[in-house]
Specification:
Blueprint: E1 8-23, E2 26-35, H1 40-46, H2 55-58, E3 62-67, E4 73-78, E5 80-84, H3 85-91, E6 98-109, E7 112-126, H4 131-134, E8 137-141, H5 142-148, E9 157-162, H6 168-178, H7 191-194, H8 196-234, H9 236-244, H10 249-285, H11 291-294, H12 305-322, H13 324-331, H14 335-340
Length: 342
């Protein structure tokens, strides 16, 4: 039903549970996500894995050597788990390390209620560039997750990927309607709702940055005003002669308005070209930043033409406004007063 909707690229099942991963004397809480061996989600994780192995190969069970109670050596097969690079670095875990995972589910025993745990073998480490996920998200196969958390054949949800990212909100509403709405007991959530607080913070920062940038341009416009005022003072004799010869007051003002507009066009063009070149350079260079602070390894750069146009138009308008005072001052010169002192 969901995969038949226009615009849906893939639909895969997944499980998601909280657990406690223990390696040696260290333990940390993580989210354990069970994925199918093949699918869009598995392909994405494959792109983050070290080496050239696929997600299906990474979660394949591998035999390990164990020691039986009688002291004899034997081999056993335990589930595989893929963890993030940040978690591996923090706990000193390498591929091949055996870790214990504790589930919040408890079972009854002669000693009371004890949490359920199982040993997993770390078969691969992924690097996504998002330290927050790498420190608290691990992947296992869907079947192993269902067995460990006693889910049977049930899943936590379905991950739907759309062909166009911007259509996620619209597609979520269509899928919810196809499933019978909220009365059907289904919850449909798109990526904008899952990270709503984060995107609201980004939108606020974007507005603040735009205001700060405009204030910087306003401060820079004072240099245009001062430059034009100096030109007016230097050219007052020429202005007086032009007005004596019949030049209109509006024509005198238009000369300085045109001069300010030309300065604005040149300045905006050079600034936009320099900003675009700098952004392209940062895209190519991938400016590194501290993952522990910004939750990503490199500075993300996205060039939005709308922002360039908005900043350019605003800067040009400010330059035009800055010419009002010099133009009014130049047009109000009295030729007789000016020529008397020349």
């Amino acid at each position: 039903m969901i995969s038949a909707q226009p615009g849906v690229a893939s639909v895969v099942a997944y499980t998601s549970h909280q657990g406690l991963l223990r390696a040696g004397e260290r333990a940390t809480g993580i989210i354990i996500r069970g994925l199918e061996r093949h699918g869009a989600a598995a392909d994405q994780v494959t792109g983050y894995l070290r080496g050239k192995q696929s997600f299906s190969d990474a979660i394949e069970r591998r035999p390990i050597e164990v020691t039986l109670p009688n002291g004899e050596a034997d081999t056993a097969s335990i589930p595989s788990i893929v963890i993030g690079e940040t978690l591996a670095r923090t706990h000193g875990i390498t591929p091949g390390t055996t870790v214990s995972v504790l589930s919040p589910q408890v079972s009854s025993s002669p000693f009371g209620l004890v949490p359920k745990f199982r040993r997993f073998q770390v078969t691969s480490i992924y690097h996504s560039g998002l330290a927050e996920y790498e420190s608290g998200l691990a992947y296992v196969s869907l079947s192993d997750a269902q067995t460990f958390f006693q889910m049977g054949s049930a899943v936590s949800g379905l991950e739907v990927r759309v062909r166009h990212l911007d259509d996620a909100t619209t597609m979520a509403q269509k899928i919810l309607a196809a499933l019978g709405g909220t009365s059907g007991g289904f919850l449909v959530q798109d990526w904008t709702q899952s990270n709503q607080a984060f995107f609201e913070a980004l939108a606020l920062e974007k507005k603040v940055y735009f205001i700060v940038l405009l204030l910087i341009i306003v401060m820079a416009s004072f240099s245009i005003i001062s430059s034009l005022v100096m030109v007016v003072i230097e050219k007052r004799r020429d202005i007086a002669i032009m007005k004596t010869l019949g030049a209109r007051t509006a024509a005198i003002g238009n000369i300085f308005r045109a001069q300010g507009a030309i300065i604005g066009v040149i300045g905006v063009s050079v600034g936009l070209a320099g900003g675009y070149g700098l952004c392209r350079g940062l895209q190519w260079y991938r400016f590194p930043i501290d993952e522990r602070i910004f939750q990503m390894s490199s500075l993300p750069i996205h060039i939005d033409p709308v922002n360039f146009i908005a900043v350019g138009v605003a800067a040009f308008l400010i330059c035009c406004v800055a010419t009002i005072y010099p133009a009014r001052r130049a047009s109000r010169f009295e030729p007789a007063e000016v020529l008397r002192h020349e």
